[in-house]
Amino acid sequence: MTSSTQAATEPTDPLPPGGDSGTGTGLTATELIGRSPGSLAWTRFKRDRVGIACAVTVLAFILIAFAAPLIAKLYGKDPYQLYGQDRGLLNSYGIPLKPNGGVDGDFWFGVEPNLGRDVFTLLIYGIRTSLFISLAVTIVSVVTGVLIGLVQGYMHGKVDYFLGRFSDLMLSFPQQLFFIAFTPVIVALFVSPRDEEPTYVRIVALILVQFLLGWMVVGRLVRAQVLSLREREFIEAARLSGASNWRIIRKEVLPNIWSTVLVQATLLLPANVTAEAGLSFLGVGIQPPTPDWGLLFQSGASYFESDVTFMFFPGIAMLIFVVAFNLLGDSVRDALDPKTVR
To answer: What is d(CA 105, CA 75) in angstroms, rounded to the nearest whole number?
Structure first.
């Protein structure tokens, strides 16, 4: 056997730890064989301890939101009953008699000033309300942004120009002022001021208002990526083979932009949560007595001097959720694109 034949038959040595030809995955050449991009991304993500901890935290919040009625049933209380007034737990000023906001074995997070509702059940139901609205806004915004971005980037020309100008117009609106001004207007379109307002109408109005000014960022990111992809060789080869535009978008373009869309969605959700809470805090979001994170802050702001404990629990909960979701977005981005430098 010649030396060249021997060299061809001998197994190659694995790459040294810390990278695969400079990609920074930390995997050997043998480990890379037959691995899909998704599998490699999952392997990188599992090695990120911060990402795993944040994923567990976010999953815990989601499970609490979905299981809020069951948790409240096991806890033995609901977010609407006025325990403080019924059991005489408040003084003449509506402040809990017991220290630390009335925290004890019966009321784990204390009772609400003035009305005397249980803070623990208000918090878990508030997470449920805020997370549902924000998740709906995120899904609708991402789907709309992806569709419009695909049309802009792939069709280009006049279609891209007019959709781009419409996107610029929507971006010119100041978001917070638009939210505050138009939420009551949209509610009035569905319910007469003389009639009682159903909760679902307010929820629909919040989703619609936040969606109208929330899809443009995703649309622009998708458009930029599609513009760069449409001139690549594999797209040209698909066109020459006679593939339809729909097939090219579905089989060639979408698989190459899904990572960008996923990362943007993980960053958009916590932003929507804080926006929804801010609207409720300002009085144009969810209305009492429906539990909501923003309403807890609104009530807490009125009593923080006499009962700071009431604002402590929802404040810590929102801080943990937003920070965990933002860090999770960073970890997902790093796992999908190992060349990214945080």
So the answer is: 11
**In a 3-state reduction of DSSP, which class is residue 15?**
coil
Dist CA 130 CA 11 (whole Å): 56
**Has residue 2 got a pLDDT over 60?**
no
User: What is the band of 74 on the pLDDT scale with cuts at 50, 70, 90?
Assistant: very high
**3-class DSSP state of 195:** coil
pTM passes above 0.70: yes
- Tell me the average pLDDT of the chain: 83
* 175, 152 Cβ separation under 8 angstroms: no
Round to whole Å and give the CA distance between 124 and 200. 19
The model's pLDDT over 283-299, given as tens digits with 9 standing for 90+, comes to: 888 888 889 988 888 88
Other CB atoms within 10 Å distance of the CB of residue 243: 16
Task: Kindly report the number of other CB atoms within 10 A of residue 267's CB atom.
Answer: 17
CA distances from 225 to 86, 218, 251 (A): 60, 11, 15
| Helix runs in the chain, H state only | 3-9, 29-32, 37-46, 49-66, 68-75, 83-86, 99-102, 119-155, 157-171, 175-190, 199-212, 216-229, 233-240, 245-248, 258-282, 293-303, 309-336
**Residue at token pair 């301890």:** 49
Q: Judge residue 64's burial from the number of C-beta atoms within 10 Å of its C-beta, 0-12 exposed, 13-18 middle, 19 or more buried.
A: middle
Do 122 and 85 meet the contact criterion of CB atoms below 8 Å apart?
no
Q: Are 281 and 198 in contact (CB under 8 A)?
A: no
30 against 88, higher pLDDT:
88
